[in-house]
Write a structure and sequence with these properties.
Blueprint lengths: L1 H20 L15 H25 L2 E5 L11 H17 L6 E3 L12 E4 H7 L5 E7 L1 H15 L11 E2 L1 E6 L2 E7 L2 E2 L6 E6 H4 L13 E8 H14 L12 E4 L1
Parallel strand pairs: 2-9, 6-11
Antiparallel strand pairs: 1-3, 2-5, 4-9, 4-10, 6-7, 7-8
Helix pairs in contact: 3-7
C-alpha cells in the first residue's frame, strides 16, 4: 500500500513537471453571456425607488412659468436675450443693495440657449443658465473702465461669432465708423475720472471670457444671488402680474456706420 501511494505521488509530480514544460495551445474559445439575476433585481428595485423623484423633477422642469411674445436671442451689437437678462439682473441688485450700482455687463457666451416665442418652462431657464454663477458688484478704476469700454467696442463690431456682442444694462454706447463717439451711464455722460460699480457674474469678475479689466478691482461685493434664480424670479413675477415678456431693441449699443 505504501509503495502504491508513493507511485501515485511521484507519477503526479512527473506529470505536473511535464505540463509545466510543454507548450500549450488554445484549441477552442467559447464565451457565454451570463445574466446576474441578483444585479437585475437590484437595478429594477433602484429604478422603482428613484422613479417618484424622477417623475417629480420632470414635472417641475416642465412647469410653464410664463410666455414670451418675441424670440429672445443673443445678437450683435445688441440682442433681446442679453437686454432681458442684463436688465432684470441690474434691477434685482439695485433693489437689494444700499449703494446703487452704475450698470451691468454680462456675456453672450454665458447665455446658452434662446428663449423662443411661446411658453417658457423652468427647464428652459436651466438650459439658458446651467451654471451656478453668483451675481457680484465690482468697483473698477477709471483705467479699468476704459478697458471695459474698449472691450465692448471691439466685440460690438464682430459678426458671425459666439463672442460677438456684449449684453449691458443702464449703459448706452454710440459707435461711429467703428470708434466710440458717446457713452451714457445711468442717463449721465460717462465721466473718465470716475470709478464705477459694475454688476456682473462671479465668473466674469474673475477674468472669464477675457474680461481682464475686472482683475485687481477696487472692491468686490457678493450679493448671494444666483444669476439663474434672478432670471427665474423675474419670469415668475411677471406672470403673477399677467405680463408676458415682450421686448424690442432700444439701441443701447448702436453702431452708426
Amino acid at each position: 500500500m505504501t509503495k502504491l501511494i508513493k507511485y501515485i505521488v511521484f507519477t503526479g509530480l512527473g506529470l505536473s513537471f511535464l505540463a509545466c514544460n510543454k507548450t500549450l495551445q488554445v484549441t477552442e474559445v467559447s464565451s457565454v453571456n451570463k445574466v446576474n439575476s441578483e444585479s437585475v433585481a437590484v437595478s429594477s428595485d433602484a429604478n422603482e425607488l428613484i422613479k417618484p423623484y424622477r417623475d417629480s423633477m420632470k414635472a417641475k422642469m416642465d412647469e410653464v412659468l410664463n410666455t414670451t411674445l418675441v424670440d429672445l436671442e443673443v445678437g450683435v451689437p445688441e440682442g433681446l436675450l442679453g437686454d432681458f437678462v442684463c436688465d432684470l439682473t441690474f434691477n434685482r441688485v439695485k433693489r437689494e443693495v444700499e449703494v446703487a450700482p452704475d450698470f451691468c455687463i454680462l456675456n453672450n457666451g454665458g447665455l446658452r440657449t434662446p428663449l423662443l416665442k411661446g411658453d417658457i418652462t423652468r427647464g428652459k431657464i436651466f438650459e439658458l443658465m446651467p451654471f451656478e454663477n453668483e451675481i457680484v458688484i465690482v468697483e473698477i478704476s477709471k483705467e479699468k473702465m476704459l478697458e471695459l469700454l474698449e472691450y465692448v467696442r471691439v466685440r460690438s463690431l464682430l459678426e458671425k461669432s459666439r463672442k460677438a456682442g456684449v449684453p449691458v444694462a443702464n449703459l448706452r454706447m454710440m459707435l461711429s465708423e467703428g470708434e466710440i463717439s458717446n457713452v451714457m451711464i445711468n442717463n449721465r455722460q460717462y465721466d473718465k475720472e470716475k470709478t464705477y460699480r459694475v454688476v456682473t457674474s462671479d465668473y466674469l469678475s474673475g477674468g472669464g471670457d477675457n474680461m481682464t479689466f475686472f482683475l485687481h478691482p477696487i472692491s468686490i461685493e457678493k450679493t448671494g444671488i444666483k444669476l439663474r434664480d434672478a432670471i427665474l424670479d423675474n419670469v415668475i413675477e411677471l406672470k403673477k402680474k399677467n405680463l408676458p415678456i415682450n421686448l424690442a431693441l432700444d439701441g443701447r449699443i448702436y453702431n452708426a456706420e
